[in-house]
């Protein structure tokens, strides 16, 4: 089980370190992406640097053997934000650039980001509650770890590849009145 936990920790740490570093390296692209989100319009410069710094700090906390739980909480908060903003973009049918990993990766937010965020939520919850609270000492801990890792990988990988197929049935469905 420790191998699965380490794979999740490294994947989350690398992902958030890369994302935060890219935002700090090209703040213009990240700021332009945040300018399009109505609830962040005022203070986008501060929001861009704060988000990037928070992502890098989360990556460092996850990688740290002293306080990884704080990193898991930070990634859970960040992933929840990804899910909320991606859902809002899908429901309102906005075309907002992601700016997640710098200017080269500025594709519009959508289903891929939603499933990516959900995968990070699942991984963060497992690392925070599953591994950190003693499930690893029981016999079911290994099965649970494998299940979470495989389900997260399957969800993120499969749904990200087929996001256009998933969105087709919903293209003519109006969610604004819901």
Automatic annotation (TrEMBL):
Broad class of where this protein is predominantly found: membrane
Taxonomic lineage: Bacteria, Bacillati, Actinomycetota, Actinomycetes, Pseudonocardiales
Topology class, membrane: Multi-pass membrane protein
Pfam families, sorted: MauE (PF07291)
Top-level division of the source organism's lineage: Bacteria
Protein name: DoxX family membrane protein
Alphabetized UniProt keyword annotations: Membrane, Transmembrane, Transmembrane helix
GO BP annotations listed: methylamine metabolic process
Cellular localisation: Membrane
Membrane-traversing stretches: 46-63, 69-92, 113-132
This protein's GO CC annotations: membrane
Domain Methylamine utilisation protein MauE: 2-129
InterPro entries per record: Methylamine_util_MauE
């Amino acid at each position: 089980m420790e191998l699965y936990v380490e794979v999740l920790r490294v994947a989350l740490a690398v992902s958030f370190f890369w994302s935060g570093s890219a935002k700090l390296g090209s703040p213009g692209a990240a700021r332009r992406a945040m300018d399009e989100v109505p609830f962040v319009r005022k203070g986008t410069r501060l929001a861009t640097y704060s988000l990037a710094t928070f992502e890098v700090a989360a990556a460092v906390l996850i990688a740290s053997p002293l306080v990884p739980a704080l990193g898991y909480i930070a990634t859970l908060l960040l992933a929840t934000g990804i899910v909320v903003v991606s859902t809002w973009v899908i429901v309102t049918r906005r075309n907002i650039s992601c700016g997640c990993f710098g200017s080269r990766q500025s594709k519009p937010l959508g289903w891929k980001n939603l499933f990516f965020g959900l995968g990070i939520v699942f991984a963060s919850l497992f690392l925070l509650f599953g591994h950190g609270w003693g499930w690893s000492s029981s016999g079911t801990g290994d099965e649970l770890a494998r299940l979470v890792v495989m389900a997260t990988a399957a969800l993120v990988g499969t749904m990200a590849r087929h996001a256009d197929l998933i969105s087709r049935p919903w293209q003519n469905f109006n969610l604004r009145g819901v």
